Amino acid sequence: MVDLPLHNIQLEITVDMATSVDFCVRYCVQRHFASAATWQVLSFTVFDATLHIFDAAKTHLHAAPVADISVIHVSGHTHQLQIQNRALFLFLCPSASSLAKFRATLAWAVVGGPIQGLASESHGDVWVQHMAVAASILESNKAFPSDVLVSSLTVAKFKASMAPLHAVCDFLLTSPSVCHVYEKLLDFEAAYLADTAKCRNFAHLMVQYRILQNQPVWATGQRSNSSLNAIFRLCPHCHHDLPLDLMFAVHIQDATRSCPLCQATLNYRVFQLGHLVRAHRTFRIKSASGKILALEMPPLPHDGSFETYLASVTQSIQSICPVAEDSAKLCGRVNEALDVYMNRCLGAFDFDVVHAMLQDLRNLSNWGRVFAMHTNSDYWSRPQIIQASIVRYHKYLHLLQLNNDESSVGLNPTFDMSNAMYAHACYAKDFQAFFLKATGRPFTVDPHYVDAGQVIATESIAKMSAQLFHQWARHYDEACLPRTLSTPWPRNEDHEMKPERNPFQPLESSTIEACCGIDILFDLAPGAVSQNCKKVVLPVIGTPFMDVMFPLAERAPILFTLKEQWVKASVAGYASGWWETQQTFAIS
C-alpha cells in the first residue's frame, strides 16, 4: 500500500425537506490508478438513489445505484469504494465523523426515506459547521500528532477557570449601581477566604494572577483572617453598621467620611488603627528592674488623625516608662505592630483583593472579549470545542519557542488559543512551569498593563495574525485561520502554497449569520466594529484575538462607571499591598 498524502475532506449535505428523496453529497477524495502521483480530487453526488462521480472539472465519470456501493476499510485512513464488490477507488479520509456521515448518506439513500439524523443535526444546531471544525482539528491531531509538549489542562479545568468569568458577566449585566458591584466583590473575597481550597471565583483568579506576578499572596504577621466586608462593615469607633456607599468611599476612593451614628471621622488609617487596637489592646514588657510594664493602647482619635494617635501613644509610654531603656524597649514593641498593621493593606491577603478585581474590570478591552465569549457561552461550553482549543494552545506555545530567533513580528493568538492559555494560567504554578518548558522562557506579567491603556492597532493585529498563519502552515501544514470571505489565502515569500489541511472548510462553504466574518474584524467592512455596531462578534475557533469585540457601552455600561469612580489609593499604594512603596512609622 502506497503511503498517501493527506488532503482536505469536504462533506456538504443538502436535504430536500419537501420530498425527502433527493440527497446531494459532495465528498472530496483521491483517485488511485497506478501510483501515488496520479491521485486526484473527485466529487460524489447522491441523487435519487444513484451515486454520481465527477472530477474537478465537473466531468461526469461514473454512475451506479447506491445499493451496489460499499465502502471497505483498507488500513489506517485508507478506504476502498466498491461497486458490486469490485474495487473502483481508494480514498483517504482522516475524519471519522465525515466518513460516518458519508456512510449514513449512502445507507439512507438505499432506503429512500429522509436522512433523519443528518437533517436534524444540520437544522437543529446553529453551530454544527463550527463543531465540524473542532472535529477536524481533533481528528487531524490524532492522525498526525505534532511533536509538541502537552500540559495537564483538561476540559474540566478549562470550565472551572471560565466559570468565574461567566458569573462576573451575569452580575455586571444586571448591576444597578457601582455600590452593588462593590458589594458583590466583597462577597467574592469573603467566600474565597472562607474556603480557599475549593472556592473558584473572581477572587481566586486574582490570587492566581498575583502568583503569576511572583508577588506574595498572604499577609505576614499575626493579623486575623477577617474579610474586607467584615472589616469595613462596622465603624471602628462605635462598632455600628456602616452604609455601603460610605464603605465604598473610604475603602475604594480613599475618602474621609463621618460615621452617621457617632460622627467620628473615618478614613483608611482609622480602620487600620482599629484593626491594630483590637489585636493588641495591651503591650507588656519586663523592665530593667524586673517589673512588668503594661501599655494600654488609647482609644481611636475622634478626628481620624494618625498623628494625633501617635502623640497619644507617645505620651502614654512616657508616663509609664521613666527609664530610657524601658521606653526604647516598649517603643520597639509598638513599632513592630505598627509596621504589621499600618504598612500593610487591611485583610488577610498581602494585597487588596477587591481593589485587584476592580483594577481588572478597568481593562475594558479584555472584558469586551470576555463578554463576547459569555454571549457565546453555548459554544464555549462544548467539550469538543474546548479540546480543540487546548490542542491549538499547545501548538501555539511551540511556535513561540520557534519564534524566539525568527522575525520580530509577534504571533497574535486566536481566541481559542488565548482562552486555553488563560484557563491554564488560572493554575498559576503549573502554568508557569509548563510555559517555561514549552517556550524556553519564563512567563512575565506587566503589573501596570491596565493603567497603560495601550490598545494594539488593528493593522498590527492583522500582521501578527498573518505571521501566525504562515508559521503555523510552515510547521504544521495546516490552516490556523479561516480564509476571509473576500480575500485569498494569506501569502508571503516563505510560504506561497496554501496549507495541506484546512479544518475551516465547513465555514468557507457557507455564511454563518450568527458570527461576524473575519473580513469585518479586519475592517474590510468599514465601521462594522464601531462602538455603536448592532452586531456582536461571537468569537469561535480561529477568530483573531482582538480588542474590539463587544459593544460594552451599550450592553454593560456599569463597567464605564466603575472605571470613572475607581480611584487608586493615594496612601502609599495600599490597594496593592505596598509592594511599590514602603512607609515606616516610629515613636521616639
TrEMBL record:
It comes from the Eukaryota. This is Aste57867_9273 protein. The lineage of its organism: Eukaryota, Sar, Stramenopiles, Oomycota, Saprolegniomycetes. The gene is Aste57867_9273.
